[in-house]
Design goal:
globular; about 220 residues; 10 helices; 4 strands; alpha+beta
Length: about 220
Amino acid sequence: MEKKLEEKSIFIFTTSKYKGWSHVDEGQFRGLAIYHSTLPIIIINNSDAKKARTFSLIHELGHLLRKKSEIAHWRDSDQDAEIWCDELAANVLMPSEEFRAVARKLRADDLNDIRKIAESFKVSSYACLVRMKQLGIIGSDIYQNLESELQELYEQQKKQLKESSPPLGRNRPDEVLDQYGHIYTRALFQAYHSNEIGLHKLCRLFGLKKASDALRLEKEL
């Protein structure tokens, strides 16, 4: 998805380094859109799960389509615009007729079945749950009960992840490409090959300590 949007000249960045932004509450930041007629920008919180990030990406694209800059879930956000962008993302990822057809085959009040529906559409369980309420497949009471179950499950998983063994070695080139996207990354390598910046500065701009990581990063493009 990110690559397809970049092909349309939209800068895509990901980050979890938003602490200290006085107008953003930690844990609520999903993404933001910065509208420009040339090279608009979308920034997504990469501490979210991949499926949740896809929903956020299309949501932020909605703001760009409206030719507006917006920080999702900011307290002063245009709520009508937020609803419109949420509906856009839901319609793109979970088309109503297809979604209803899959949902009819499973129990709408069972969290395991909701997770199966979510998996079939490659979205988060929470996005699936919201879509079910939006389409009237479940009512408010069932929605609230299942949302509480999901939140409890999320807290358990977060605790298990924190207590688990540290992950294997990081792949810094992949992380950098995910963070800065293809457009920005290519631009820096073009500057490097044009002798506008040296290898040391190239690595510094990417936050890389090893020149070998920079060379591996170029191969990923």
